[in-house]
Write a structure and sequence with these properties.
ATP-binding; alpha/beta; helicase; seven-stranded parallel beta sheet; globular; 726 residues; DNA helicase activity; 38% helix
Amino acid sequence: MSTLDEPLKKLVGGTTAKVLADSLGLHTHGDLLHHYPRRYVERGELTSLDELELDEHVTVMARIEKTEVIPFKGRKGNRLQVVVTDGRGRLTLAFFNQAHRAHELRPGRQGMFAGKVGVFNRVRQLANPDYQLMDDEDAGPAEDFAGRLIPVYPASAAMPSWKLSKAVDVLLGSLDWELVQDPLPEPLREGRGLLPLRDALQGIHRPRSQADRIAAQSRLKWDEAFVLQVALAQRRAADSAQPAVPRIPRDGGVLDAFDARLPFTLTEGQQKVTAEIFSDLAQDHPMHRLLQGEVGSGKTMVGLRAMLAVVDTGGQAAMLAPTEVLAQQHHRSIVEMMGDLAEGGMLGGSEQGTKVALLTGSMGVPARRQTLLDLAVGDAGIVIGTHALIEDKVQFLDLGLVVVDEQHRFGVEQRDALRAKAERPPHLLVMTATPIPRTVAMTVFGDLETSVLDQLPAGRSPIASHVVPALERPNFLARAWERIREEVGKGHQAYVVCPRIGDAEDEKKAKAKGRPPEGEDRRPPLAVLDVAAELSAGPLQGLRVEVLHGRMQPDAKDDVMRRFTAGRLDVLVATTVIEVGVNVPNATVMVIMDADRFGVSQLHQLRGRVGRGSAPGLCLLVSEMPGASAARQRLDAVAGTLDGFELSRIDLEQRREGDVLGQAQSGVRSSLRVLSVLEDEEVIAAAREEAVRLVALDPGLEGQPGLLGALRSLLDADRAEYLEKG
């Protein structure tokens, strides 16, 4: 009998075990047991072929419609071309020099076919796919799958779904179930009416009916939600036990002076969130708060007032920004908002003020040395910087608050390195302009309290968004350039955003990757340098056009942004370096080239750079993708709503949910196998309540050996470090 920590080599042999490890990351019996089917098909049920995405590795069930052997022209060999159908759409299977397969791949037969979706002569195809015929002529598979649902596993080119299925069959028959510990406490499982673990695992892999499958998935969703929420509850409990210096702003200090000069009233949302933050700052344990808000909702103002509150207590605050452009923009805007309050200790500065410093990697030696001195002796109460803040040379007199802007751009190590510069744990405020659905916040940021800003300040203008189908309607693209000319004629400015830079380094990387990665018919993404040259010589000739991208020298980037902000440039052709934080109220129109190459949330962020003043904003999403494609549907969704939270749900649905405990929540591999952070809100919320209750009663989980084992499995070395660093 086998146990879960045994290597797969003993179960399936060395060759298959190596393929499972290399292609799917499955090493032990436990890994295979928890590699659940992605979906199920019933005998006779065909896959919808018109929904297959390019470059996706798929397993489809279809019926063979046509088989043809086509000799190569001018050379030896042939291509066996098999057309399969679901009754509506078609897919071509191409086998090279394998004409012998024609005798079994005959029209009318039905089977499962697995491969990567590519394009040849503008027709979608699977090249040299694996397959298993499923009709009555194949007694083996028919016996294997008769009378039940057929599981379709997450697979790879080297390990198709049906081979995985056979390995799982062997495992289920050899496991010592007495040694498989249940992570759910018995009272919780019985109280929630959930299946025993053994029944759930057998039901997920070999359901006899849809009811079996649903019951198994319901139970295993609870396992994933509960184990994750227990890990986060333990983290929150540990945070609450840490000591911190309470930071209560004094009357008549720099915060009061700043508020007295504000030319506007804070929104209700800003006031509410500020009250939550100030309440946290007054505690004797560190604040751990996530501030998420719509583009342009005033997060920077809220963050600045929190920093000023800490300065009033004699402490210092550091804001960590992901790029030099954003750090410089924050520094400029904060100094402008504070006026002489940002020049404390300087000639002409306010007596109530403090010095607001900037620290980036490209600063000259004298300026850098002065900033380091101001931080070490406490003259600078606020510093805004990039990764340069993390370097060993940077020392603070009394670091009381760390503000992390656009958290998703940073590794946890970077955030932790800055917090470690304080004698006692500083308060932490994480800000993001990428709206996050509630259940995602409870998982990805489950150790942080969450505040939401969804109310825009008065005076902000609406942004109209439209998709420009460049191939179908080239006159629409011509009209986009006319709109830019019209806006510039009114005294406004414009952005043109491209996915690529187009310099020598760009070309070198593209050659190394091999192009085009998306399929044979697709051209490379448009580049900033190429588009800027074409516009300057063509439709925008005579306008002041400049470029901005991440590989420019820092001084050059800053010079371009200063001139654009001052209105001395008409059009900025840029990469996503302008995605967050850039604030030019006079910019009213943005044209995003190859918009389908960007994610939904990224497009929403970019769009937020216009309409920041009193004039209406316009965002044009240019794409050559056909109208029925998933990419165009994504763009239509962005054009159809300004609700960032709704778009974040769409974005998450399309990207998959990623590793909710990993740093790069990229959707490549997820620690969530059956739980959906979008669809299972009730389960996640209930699991959080149960986890908090259990951790309060048994912080070390001494009475829960099964749960401890599941936690160890979930929190491998990397994820444990992630949680420890907060």
